Structures are given as C-alpha cells and as structure tokens.
Prior knowledge:
Blueprint: E1 14-19, E2 25-33, E3 39-44, E4 47-50, E5 52-55, E6 58-63, E7 72-76, E8 86-89, H1 101-109, E9 120-126, E10 129-137, E11 143-148, E12 161-162, E13 168-174, E14 181-187, E15 193-196, E16 212-213, H2 224-229, E17 241-245, H3 247-250, H4 256-260, H5 263-270, E18 274-277, E19 281-282, E20 295-299, H6 306-318, E21 322-327, H7 353-356, E22 357-358, E23 363-364, H8 371-387, E24 392-395, H9 398-402, H10 424-440, E25 445-448, E26 476-478, H11 480-490, H12 502-505, E27 516-520, H13 540-556, E28 560-564, H14 593-611, E29 626-633, E30 638-644, E31 650-656, E32 662-669, E33 676-681, E34 710-716, E35 720-726
Parallel strand pairs: 17-18, 17-28, 18-21, 21-24, 24-25, 25-26, 26-27, 27-28
Antiparallel strand pairs: 1-2, 2-6, 3-4, 3-7, 5-6, 7-8, 9-10, 10-13, 11-14, 12-13, 14-15, 14-16, 19-20, 22-23, 29-30, 30-31, 31-35, 32-34, 33-35
Amino acid sequence: xxxxxxxxxxxxxxxxxxxxxxxxxxxxxxxxxxxxxxxxxxxxxxxxxxxxxxxxxxxxxxxxxxxxxxxxxxxxxxxxxxxxxxxxxxxxxxxxxxxxxxxxxxxxxxxxxxxxxxxxxxxxxxxxxxxxxxxxxxxxxxxxxxxxxxxxxxxxxxxxxxxxxxxxxxxxxxxxxxxxxxxxxxxxxxxxxxxxxxxxxxxxxxxxxxxxxxxxxxxxxxxxxxxxxxxxxxxxxxxxxxxxxxxxxxxxxxxxxxxxxxxxxxxxxxxxxxxxxxxxxxxxxxxxxxxxxxxxxxxxxxxxxxxxxxxxxxxxxxxxxxxxxxxxxxxxxxxxxxxxxxxxxxxxxxxxxxxxxxxxxxxxxxxxxxxxxxxxxxxxxxxxxxxxxxxxxxxxxxxxxxxxxxxxxxxxxxxxxxxxxxxxxxxxxxxxxxxxxxxxxxxxxxxxxxxxxxxxxxxxxxxxxxxxxxxxxxxxxxxxxxxxxxxxxxxxxxxxxxxxxxxxxxxxxxxxxxxxxxxxxxxxxxxxxxxxxxxxxxxxxxxxxxxxxxxxxxxxxxxxxxxxxxxxxxxxxxxxxxxxxxxxxxxxxxxxxxxxxxxxxxxxxxxxxxxxxxxxxxxxxxxxxxxxxxxxxxxxxxxxxxxxxxxxxxxxxxxxxxxxxxxxxxxxxxxxxxxxxxxxxxxxxxxxxxxxxxxxxxxxxxxxxxxxxxxxxxxxxxxxxxxxxxx
Length: 727
C-alpha cells in the first residue's frame, strides 16, 4: 500500500465487518491511511472513537457494531489541543465503484462512444455524497494513486482500485470539486513511479504548468436553431468559404470571451461561412501551433476555461458562422508527464519502435490497432462535436497515418499482413471515426489534409474501390496538388507563365475524384515560403494585382475555399505566432493602408458574390458544373471557364495573368443568353486596380469561337480576374 502498488485498497481500507468464530458479526473494523496525521477518529451518529495508530500513517480499530454504519473521519494534524488542525472528511474507501459494468464492457470492447463520461475526473453525487470520481486506463500499472493540490501533491493516502481486467483504475474522492488540480501517480511494473497528467482531462493548468484540472460545465447554449439547420444542405452542395485562424495570435492577448466580441463580427463582415481554428486542444509548446497535443480532451487554458471556449463557439454560431477545429490524431509528443509510455510500457504508441517513432516531428504515433487507443481517438472526435458544438473536424497529417513507409527509408518499416505499405489499422480507425461522427453528429463535416493520391478519401466507407479498400469516409479533402501547382505558376514572371500553363489546368484532370477544399493555409506562409502577396513577382502594384487575380481564380475554381488570416489584406510578412497578423497595415495613418484595405474589400466582395451565385458551389463535385471555354491560351496567360448551377444557369470566369490590357478578347459562350454583365473585376479601382472594366452589358456576336456559335468580345485588364453572368 505504501509503495503505491496495491490493486485493491478498498479491500484493506474503509470499514469491514469482522466475524466471530460462528460467522456472526463481531464488530466493524475501520482502517484509514492518513500520512502525517496525529490522530484519526471515526464519527458515527455524532459520537467519535479514536483509532489506533499502527504507524506509517495507518490507523485502525474495531467498533462493536452489528453492521457497517454511515460515518465520517475526523483527522487531526495539529500537535496540541490549542492547535488541533482538524478536518472532518468522508472516507473515500467506504464507497462502491462509481463506474458501471456497461461502461467497463464498452471500454473493453473499444466502443465507448462517450468515453469522456466514463474516464477522467467527473464531479458527481455518489451514494448521496458530492465529490469527484477519478478513473484512468493504465493496464500495465502495479498500482495507481490520485495526487493533487488537495493532498499537497502526496498521493500516498489516495490509492485507486483496479476494476478487473479492463485496465481501468477508479476512486471516488468526496469533497473534491471544480477547479481542483490533480495527476495520477503510477507504479510501473519495475516498481518505479511516474506522475502523469490525465489523458482524459477536460481542463488543464495554463502551460508551462502541467496539472489536470477537475472541471464541471455550467454553460447554457444559445445555438439550438443553428444546430437544427446546419445540415439542411449537404456541405459539398453548399457555399463553404473558410477563414483559418490561430486563436492565440489573431489578436494576441485576447481571451476566448474577448475573441467572441471581435472574431464573429469580423468574419461575418468579410462573408466567410466558416472559421477553421488551428488546434485548440492543450499543447505544452506554443511554437507547435497546437499540433503537438498533450490534452486531447481539453481546450487550451491559455485563453480561458472550457466554458469560455463554448462561449466563443456559441457567439460564432449566433453570427451565422460555422466552426471547424483542427484535430491531430496522427501523433503526440514525448513529454514524460503525458502519454508517452504512460504506465511504464508503450500504451498509446505501438510496441514496435519502427512504428512508434514519427520520423518527421520527433513524436510518437498512435497504436491504431489497439481497441482502447482507437476508442480514445474516436470518442475524442465525437467529444469536440458534441461537447463544444463544432461543425467540422479538419484532420491533420492523414498521409502520415495511412502509409507505413511515410518518411521512412528501406529497412525502417515493415509491410502489412498483405505485404503492402498501407497502415491497415489506421485505415480502419479513420473509417470508424468518420462513420461514428456522421452517425452521431448531423451536419458535421470531416476534412482530410491528405497530400497523396490515396483512392477514396471522400468515398463512403462501405463503397470498395479498385484498390480493395472501402472509402475513408471524409466529407472533404484539402487539394494540396492544386495549391502547390497554382502557387508555383503564380511565382513565375508573367513572361514565363506560358511555359507553365498546365500547372493551372491540371487540377481539372482530377477535380471530381474527391470532394475538394482549395487551401491557402498557414503552412504556405511560414518557414521561408513567404506570405501570399510576397510570392508574386514584380513590383508592389503587380504583386497585389496578382494576388487579387489569383483569389478571383481560386473562388471560381471548383472546390471550397480556405484562406489563412492576414492574407485577406495582403500582409507582406510571413505569419508569426508571436505577434499574429500585421493589423497596423490597415491603420488609416499608414500611407499604404488603402492598398491593403483594397485587397480585403475584394475578399469581402468575392465571398458575397460567391454566396449569392449557386453556380460557384452547387455542383462543385460533378463534371456537369464546369466547362472550359479556353484552357489552352498559354500564349496569353488566360484561363476562361464556365460554372453552372443545378438549373444550368452559368457564370463565366476569366483570369488573365499578364500585365497588359487585351482589347476585344473573344470567348465563346452559350448562345441562349442575350447579354452578359460583369459582376466582379479584381482590377477595379476600389480594390487598388487600374480600373480597366467592362462597365456595360456585353452582347454576344454571331461569331463562333471555342466550339460555340456565339462569342463575347471582352476587355481583359492586366493581372485580373473577371466574373460575368447573364444579364
């Protein structure tokens, strides 16, 4: 017991009937483990009986009682009558297990979809007494104890009991409530100890402190209408324009509640339909941007409590903004107080070090083949959707999960049972996660950051593809190929772009293989890659014009849009988590303020026109929603195509990536429309452009072009994108 290696402390401590020679009850034996106490008294019906001091903090005594009574313990720490320093407490060892058999069965099966209700620290009333139930999965431990600020970080007095073969340890501690700090003191198989944060903690201390915090939500949501209607239209047939945010640096120093007063209004004004939050799960190192998670069930405490985070989500919903959070089930850091070798042996990570070590990030990968680990992650996905009402999960680094040889050389990995390089356990996990989230959380979308050509990322899990695998079941996938190719094209001087024309058109070869998001994310504006506007060639005017034209092309291209904060106003510097976006660029006292405000005005107008034009989103995932007008005008650096809504109503998008004006540029269009009107022009003066526009409705000429019997003659501004629709 003193070594913290007892699996059944309740069998020794607490109150137990003592039988005489005939088997009848001869009294009740009381035992209490209270290190540092001077005396312990049992109080029954107001009368106290002192227990004997057996040494090493153990107190015991037999009372002549016919049955185990209701009782409390009066523990004295003071030396004298003048300084008694007494504390009357409920005895944790008089309570039955506070975790039910069904919970234990589901945990053992790896199918507890509300795992956070069973494991971790939960405030509750048990056998008429209020306290906190502590539970933790540690199957390799010889013993587990609760330690915290309520024990002055000495866990000797609070050993937990093992609940059979499940590997779960449990203890109900009366009197402990919201705000208490705690960890688990685990005795490893070799007898050494490790003190760990709770893997299921729903709140943590502010880093760099690492304790878990008992928490109880009292938040009352106000977004019932939002939740009821968010799934009215399938996401792949709906407008979906995302503003990616790093909460800690969007406005540095703001709390969740302060962000709630600013972020929803800003995003709504710009017309984005969703925000995507870079990981908000607790992480010890701010420079990881949240991608090295230690508290998978805890929103980071840097900006407030879990209820404060709920307040922010609620505020975004009430503003009509959906909330996507980045979710990181691909790996976890090696911090000695967190998940790595949690109970003395590999537990959350595979035992095979070749599969455990993530070669790129100095972290550990999850053991997706272990039912309890898979359950931990699947339930975590559900947790964020149900407890925090988030509308989507963007799953980070999916490719690193899918391939056993990801970033590994020959000899550093072993094939799967089929002899292939696919991680079959990870495939099964992702399928289970997606199926569970979509079943339990109507209206939620899952999004894969998957950088390879894996077949069927957004295919239903029950539809088997040519590779023999069912689909992974995601709703959307980041189109990393489009991002890389299009940015490579834009980085070229206009005179050289004709030699790279195919980099802008190649995406349409595979555009309908998955349901895509076009991402200009944080990853593209850090680590020397430069901000979006700084990737563009030429002088400052040309750089801004290129960014505006590129955004117009991006918003018209099949797929949903994602833009990282700061790029909406052409920030020239790379993003830094230390200071966030350069908001000073929008200060009216800054000489070039209008240049940056013009780009932001364009983003606002792009989003508004996009939302009002079903042709740009209603048929995103079917070939019938797109047709090239001219995809081969490499000599002119022109891309012209049509988008169609479900009724066949078109939008004509024309992007011109040369710094010259082209008069009378002829493009074939559908003949059934008598005139076309320019609804957006990225060269408009209000955006900082040169003001070359097509101000009047343009009527088609009976001149065939691009395989169509009628055509328009347009003036193409320099480095600009035009949108036109039938007048």
